[in-house]
Amino acid sequence: MAVVVILPKQGQSVESCIITEIKKKKGDSVKKGEVIFTYETDKATFEEESPLDGIVLESFYNEGDEVPVLLNMMIIGQPGEDYSALLEDSSPVAIENKEQLSKTQEAETYVIQNKERETSNLSNSSNSSTVFVSPRAKNLAEKEALNVKGLAGTGPKGRVIEKDVVVALNSRPKMTPLAKKIAAEEGAQPQGTGSGLAGTAKAADLLPPLVNPLYGIDYEDRKISNMRKLIAKAMHSSLQNSAQLTHHLGADARRMLELRKKVKKAIEAGTLKTNITINDMVCFSVIKALKKFPNVNSHFLGDTMRLFDKIHLALAVDTDRGLMVPVVRNADDLSIIGLANQFKEIANGCRKGGIAPELLAAEAGTFTVSNLGNYGVEIFTPVINLPQTAILGVNTIIPRPKDLGDGVYAFVPYIGLSLTYDHRALDGGEATRFLKQIAIEIETLEFEF
Fold it and tell me: For the domain 241-443, what is the CATH superfamily, name and number?
């Protein structure tokens, strides 16, 4: 009996995936357990296996397509099997697809009718360049800097009416005010998607490109990876849907550096097997601070705040495929050695592609730490993993002057801390006190090994 293979949902936050490879095409034979296609989210790559022996009767999407989760991907059955009932499925997804198809067909019909009218108008105008435009259409076109000469009018005797202008504007990218001004003055129109945010056409998109006459075209247009597309989408959504603000503070790192020397000596002596890093110490301090500021250990859900009893700490990990943010659950139950071991395990899992998908969802974590100190970054603004309410950026250690008392100043190693928080969920005062508490925990850090 033929079965439908759907695109699985990998985590609560995943709404769509990109198909990376179609292993089995329509008409190909498959064995149960054989990989039929691969797909990726912004965090990891997955394989989908065939649920039975048979052949691929239908395949609905192609490589590179971004497909909403839970949609039908393939139909697998036996040769010659009637699977028409599966194609006529009346599920909400099928209905949605039919409605979308109907809208697409309607739009195509309208375009064809417009082209037919345009051809008729051109043949009846005896090559006249005069365009008849209704007053409302003219006002709207001038306001939006749209050239009506190329429009096919659908009004009486080919007159361009307001509806024709609206249709043209809907098919044209949005434009910045400067781009509109240039379009009105020079009659230029954007071609294709603009280079601004969300495809907005900027002034540079309307002006002819400057080409060096000596070298010609000195650039290359390169498509971004599927994962980068999804990461970009997530980052843009985070900044667009929250009120993010960042506070920066330095913490005296002398205590951490002293402990780090002890760790190295213990490892050399063979009395310690786990390498406890500066990052492990910072995260251990963050956990202590979160226990004293439970409002930060939360999710902002619009009209409610979800406060967590346990701390599920997420750590940003740089991989060859892009940035991943796995979660250590119940991190507040771990010693610093246990925390360090967990961090190493999930980081290796991310780099090898073996991390559990549920540990990569933003909803799985209650707070995130992103460390760029190893790269020498002195200050940066991390982006929140919504619906979490805050994220800590850890910077490099640099010497700064400090008053040691009695008028004595000396250069002291300071580690930079950058806290980005959602101002809808946390007030500035509370966020500042929390950041200061992290610094206090770092400066007074104690642990045994």
Answer: Chloramphenicol acetyltransferase-like domain (3.30.559.10)
